[in-house]
Amino acid sequence: METKERLRAFKPEKVFGKWYGIVLLVFFAVVFWGFFKILTPNNFGDPDRLYSYFQSSIQYAVGACGFYFIVVMGLFDFSIGANVVLSSIVGVLLSKHFGYAGLLIGSLACGTLIGLMNGFLYTRLKIPSMIVTVGLMLILESVASFVAGGVKQTLDKSLLGFAQAPGNIILAFVAFLLVAFILKFTRIGTYCNAIGSNEFVASNMGIDVNKYKLLGFVLLHFFVGIMAILTVSYGGSMTATTNMQTLGLNFTPLMGCFFGLAFRKYTNPVIAMVVGEFIIKIIFSGFVALGAPTTIQNVVTGAALLIIVALTTRTAKGAVVK
Q: In terms of Cα–Cα distance, which of 135, 98, 104 is closest to 117?
């Protein structure tokens, strides 16, 4: 009986303290790595491949960090993929005239302006964010197709500094540090969390809820602009698509964001999102190494999303989809 009581009283978060969240995330990463390494030892998980997984995961981690600003308030945005495509195309077109300055400023400005438009329409129309952003996704896809002129936009080989280390890692970590600073040391981070916990109470405390929701969308799409730079650099080109084909680009950063929400009481959410995206990449790469069909990968992706959402809902009971 004494042993059972001790086991019930045992709480690992007390043993590891502030490191509990990081230990748990690393544990998950090692478990998934070990699982696929045992199944396919020759073409998965060696140090070079792990480094490659990490490099390809950081672009989604940047998007996940941006997502955090609105998801923590119970909002969603399905125009992320369309914005990545449009901002990438704008950045590539401007880079042909202004080099790296055109790529950086074009992508960031386009992304931020789209965030401003999304936030303005959501706060003014007073309809659920999912409905607003699905409509905007269709519009942005059409705009991207028009801007690209139906032609694949290719980034010049002299401008691929963010395609691999150290350029992509430096840009991504600047974004991570900026998100961590905003969340910890600014009113925006504090008020976004307060609105997500209880919007009614936050409003009664004098917080301008609509203002900070608008700022949340702006910040989200600013970081989507950074994600666009990393994405088009990594792939070398971008092709505009229509008929909601950009929708799939939303879910990988969204899953990473849910890691941040689920683990925020144990560790810094930015760390959780970066490691979470790395775990997701390990899982995807493991199934590719096994030669699993795309349908199986989609099933696993959906199941992982449901599990993470369930975990997130338990740890952030105040969140309501708006």
A: 135
